[in-house]
Specification:
mainly alpha, Helix Hairpins, minor pseudopilin epsh fold, 2 domains, three-stranded antiparallel beta sheet, 11 helices, 51% helix, globular, binds manganese (III) ion
Length: 247
Amino acid sequence: MMTRREAIKAVALTAGALAVTPSFLKGATADSSASNAVYPFKVPELGYPYDALEPYIDAQTMQIHHDKHNAAYVENLNKALAQAPESIQKKSLEDLLLNLDKIPENIRTAVRNNGGGQYNHAFFWKILKKNDAGQPIGDLSKSIDATFGGYPAFQAKFSEAAMKVFGSGWAWLVADGKNLAITTRPNQDCPISKPDGKEIPIVGIDVWEHAYYLKYQNRRAEYVKAFWNLVNWDYAAEQYAAASKQA
Ligand code: MN3
């Protein structure tokens, strides 16, 4: 049995988990004011013009990536959920991805791929912002220094991880409580899903070719290098502060 103190902590953890992801899922539901996105999902707003990230990511890539690729994930996620029982349809995107084993088998892969695609891209649009060679700030900066031995060492390790993703996938800086780690996921698997289901995304890079091919063709390394001009460190710090509260 849980002690009262443990019970309070468990409640606090649940509340904390719910508080973390909705900030980038706003606008990702039929009701854009909803803090907890549910079916039917809609494409999250980009929040800036297609050319806002030039010259590092070109306007055409952003337009196709957002309006076509993200939209396809949403369409296919909704199509899959249309066949699901109401109890599944009512679940938030976060809940669906945290509990993929509870999704009916006939739509599980579709929810994993397209729900993950929606989650990852909703985050990606938020983490991208021209930063004028800015660097991590506040507690996140201190934690990056302590974990990786400084910002340049972190950049090198993250870039290496992004380069090593074989085929399509993502590289992530994630937090489990205050603890930082660099990780990768294949396809559209996302950090909050297994293995441990509680890694909060802090920084993420999409290394699917659709994210860079028009401008960089096969030169992923150049795209990864350019990415460092596009990390929204304010947003990353907010995510880290939210994740830290769950420690
Ligand atoms: Mn993509």
